Amino acid sequence: MTFDTWDGDDESAAGRFVPLYVLVNGRTAPRDSTLDLATQVVALPVDTRRLEPEYTAIVHRCSTWMSVAEIGAYLHLPLAITKVMVDVLVEQGYLGVGTPAQQNIIDLHLLDSVLAGLERL
Amino acid sequence: MDRTSVKIVVAGGFGTGKTTLVASVSEIPPLTTEEILTEASVGVDDLTGVEGKKTTTVALDFGRITISPDVVLYLFGTPGQDRFWFMWDELAQGAVGAIVLVDTRRLDSSFPAVDYFERRGIPFVTAVNRFFGECDYTEEEIRGALELDPRVPLVWCDARDRPSSKLALVTLVRHAMKRLTARAPA
């Protein structure tokens, strides 16, 4: 009889003891499908003491507006996981969400301000 | 809440200078975010010979430019390997458009990107990166080789140079605006 043994190969050098899928209850996609990697979120003034540390880290990181991609990069979390965790936090009222980039209609007024912003660079 | 994100995709073959361009205009040093592919997605990834491998990591480099107090532009470089097309879809969806970087020593490496944006009707400009040295080709020759639609702008650039990268971005936004106006009912 053979047993599966842990080979010691863990997520990071520091060792991640909780597998990432546990943190997100096995969910693989955010409930809010408009949440994309450029969508920005910001921490709302609520008590985070009940949250697990991985979630608290996200809320703390969002003291100013921050995109899903940035959160993933700063906290070394894969994008799919970041998206689901951010979605949970938005749903539970810890994070406020901005207008996602993922819209089909890009309006001229917005493009006008992007152009002006780029020209100021 | 009023906080708007705008995306521009920076595409092109492997080693054409995508991250260099992002770095030259971004207000933060380019960040890298990772997506992990599991066995569910290996259908598109050739794992012959490495069957023991369970996951593959795709890295995405990106930068940001604050446009105004409530608008931030994110510049996403596409993954270098062509096989990660599913990532392109997420990057391209809702994007203003794309800059396709072209290295004249390897024109063919930018074919897939040109083809991708053309097929989906996503506005794009081609930026011929000259930091590799003198370019022996004329604009007509490059357009011909890439089979570019005459309406697609072509700019010469040095991806290391901020004004030059800025010009490529401005050209793209103008192009996207022109297409939007042309499509709108009179």
UniProtKB/TrEMBL annotation, chain A:
Stored Pfam families: DUF742
The organism of origin for this protein: Paractinoplanes tereljensis
InterPro entries (UniProt xref): DUF742
Matching PANTHER family: DUF742 DOMAIN-CONTAINING PROTEIN (PTHR36221:SF1)
Lineage of the species this protein comes from: Bacteria, Bacillati, Actinomycetota, Actinomycetes, Micromonosporales
UniProt name for this protein: DUF742 domain-containing protein
UniProtKB/TrEMBL annotation, chain B:
Example of a GO MF term: GTP binding
Keyword ATP-binding annotated: yes
Superkingdom in the source lineage: Bacteria
Keyword terms: ATP-binding, GTP-binding, Hydrolase, Nucleotide-binding
SUPFAM superfamilies the record matches: P-loop containing nucleoside triphosphate hydrolases
Keyword ATP-binding: yes
Family that this chain belongs to: Belongs to the GPN-loop GTPase family.
UniProt cross-references to PANTHER family, sorted A to Z: ATP/GTP-BINDING PROTEIN-RELATED, GLIDING MOTILITY PROTEIN MGLA
Name recorded for this polypeptide: ATP-binding protein
Organism from which the protein derives: Paractinoplanes tereljensis
Organism lineage: Bacteria, Bacillati, Actinomycetota, Actinomycetes, Micromonosporales
